[in-house]
Specification:
Layout (H helix, E strand, L loop, with lengths): L2 H21 L6 E3 L22 E7 L8 E7 L2 E10 L3 H17 L4 E3 L10 E13 L3 E12 L5 E12 L5 H26 L4
Parallel strand pairs: 1-4, 2-5, 2-6
Antiparallel strand pairs: 3-4, 6-7, 7-8
């Protein structure tokens, strides 16, 4: 092997490695959405028919580390993992709000539930604002939901009730699909707590 060949050998190896890297396939991203409760009225059987009651949902706020397209999980006491290949199929805030609207409508047996910002023709009798501090979990272990929520009555800004919900749901396996399913169950549990509080505020018909 000549001295000239030895001189160019490292450069040739580097070009070969770069070429191999360029031909490798990038993992395909997987997108997830949260699911509302099933159309099972067993949980709302004790609810009173309140078709005239209008309920507004919002605002729903998230901490900055969660309000992103990639799904965030907890990997340590003070460590988060952001997986760019497992992503929400849209805005997490809008996804959570939509699920809450569907769940509350089911539990309260009313079609008059709307997310903020609502149309001018819609005036809610009750409004629920949520400040979500934690909505994640650990793969293969649990999904967690930690939120403070306030019920406002009428057009006043004075709260009719202030609550804090801390919910944990087990995860069936170590997949992201199982984690999102458990997060959906956590939202269902939160929705039941909100519906119970609304029933206490509203007069029976």
């Amino acid at each position: 092997m000549t001295r000239r060949t030895l001189y160019y050998l490292p450069l040739m190896l580097l070009i070969a490695l770069l070429g191999a890297g360029c031909t490798g396939q990038t993992p395909q991203s997987v997108y997830y959405i949260l699911s509302p409760m099933q159309n099972d009225t067993s949980d709302s059987a004790s609810a009173v028919e309140r078709d005239a009651i209008a309920i507004g949902i919002g605002p729903v706020t998230f901490p900055d580390e969660l309000n992103r397209p990639a799904i965030v999980t907890q990997s340590g006491q003070n460590q988060l993992t952001v997986n760019e290949f497992h992503r929400w199929g849209g805005s997490l805030e809008k996804n959570v709000t939509r699920v809450l609207v569907e769940n509350i409508a089911l539990l309260m047996r009313t079609d008059q539930v709307m997310a903020r910002p609502w149309e001018r023709y819609f005036t809610p009798d009750l409004r629920i604002a949520l400040d979500i501090q934690r909505f994640g979990g650990r793969l293969g272990e649990y999904a967690s939901l930690n939120t403070t929520w306030i019920v406002f009555s009428g057009k006043k800004d004075d709260p009719a009730a202030v609550h804090r919900s801390v919910i944990r749901e087990p995860v069936t396996d170590d997949s992201y699909d199982a984690l999102v399913a458990a997060q959906s169950k956590a939202l269902a549990g939160l929705s039941k707590e909100i519906a119970a509080a609304l029933r206490e505020i509203l007069p029976a018909k």
